[in-house]
Amino acid sequence: MTFRVLVVDDDFMVARIHSGYVAKVPGFEVAGTAHTGAAALEAVAEERPDLVLLDIYLPDMSGLEVLNRLRGVDVLMISAARDLPTVREAMRGGAISYLIKPFTAAALAERLTQYADTRRQLTTIGPEVRQDDIDRLFGVVRAPLPKGLSSATCALVAEALRQAAGDLSATEAATLTGLSRVSARRYLEYLCAAGRAELRPRYGTTGRPEHRYRWMS
Question: Backbone phi, then psi, for 5, in 5-degree steps?
Fold first, then answer.
C-alpha cells in the first residue's frame, strides 16, 4: 500500500524540502505541492491524496480554515505556531497530528510511519471492533512514554507481543522487531506500566527467573 501526500506550504523551498522528506519514507509518495489555501483545496479535489501536510500560515487564508473545509482526507498540520489555541483548533478540526516547524526528516518519518501503521490496522479489523482495537487506533495509553522511546516503535513492539502465541522474552521480541534486546526490554517494561502487558517470571534450573511478557487482551 502506497500513501499519496500533498505538501502545502507558502514557502516554495520549504515545500521542496518537506517533499524530499516524504519521498524518503517507504510506502509514501508526493502527490503534489501547493502554496496557497485555494490551491490546496483544488489539489485535494483533483489529486485525492491520502494525507495532506498542511501549513497554517498561508497567504490567502489560514491553514485552519483549509482544514475545516477539507473532507475525505487526513491532515497533518505543520506550523511554527505553538500557542495552545491554535493547537486546540487544529485538534478540533480533525488533524491527525501536529508538527512544529522546523522539524527533522526523522520526526516527520515517525509521524508518517505511525499513520501508515494505523491505516493498515484498519484493513485488518472486522466489521465490529473491540475496545482494545479502538485504543490501539487512537493511541490510548495508560502511562506516558518515557524520554527516548518512540510511539511508532512502541506500536511495533506491542503488535509483536499481541500477535505472539504465548509470552515473549526481551530477546525474542528483539528478534521479531529488529531492535536490540535492551531497547525491546524498555518498550516491554513500558507496556507493562501502561497496563497493556504483564510480566511473567519463568524459573529455570539456576533459580534466576527469566522475564517473560504477555499481551493483556
Answer: -120, 130
| Calpha distance 105→93 (Å, rounded) | 25
pTM for this structure? 0.63
Answer yes or no: are the C-beta atoms of 87 and 65 closer than 8 Å. no
Q: What is the pLDDT along the chain (217 residues), one digit of tens a residue?
A: 899 999 999 999 999 999 999 999 999 999 999 999 999 999 999 999 999 999 999 999 999 999 999 988 999 999 988 887 888 888 888 888 888 888 899 889 988 988 888 888 777 776 777 766 666 666 554 456 788 888 778 888 888 888 887 899 999 999 988 899 999 999 999 888 877 888 888 876 555 678 999 987 5
Residue 28 identity (one-letter amino acid): F
Q: Cell triple for residue 85?
A: 489555541
Task: Please provide the DSSP assignment of the chain as one string.
Answer: --EEEEEE-SSHHHHHHHHHHHHTSTTEEEEEEESSHHHHHHHHHHH--SEEEEESB-SSSBHHHHHHH--SSEEEEEES---HHHHHHHHHTT-SEEEESS--HHHHHHHHHHHHHHHHHHHHS-SS--HHHHHHHHT--SSPPPTT--HHHHHHHHHHHHHSSS-EEHHHHHHHHT--HHHHHHHHHHHHHTTSEEEEEEE-TTSPEEEEEEE--
Sequence-distant (6+) residues with CB within 8 A of 30 are 4, 5, 6, 7, 19, 22, 23
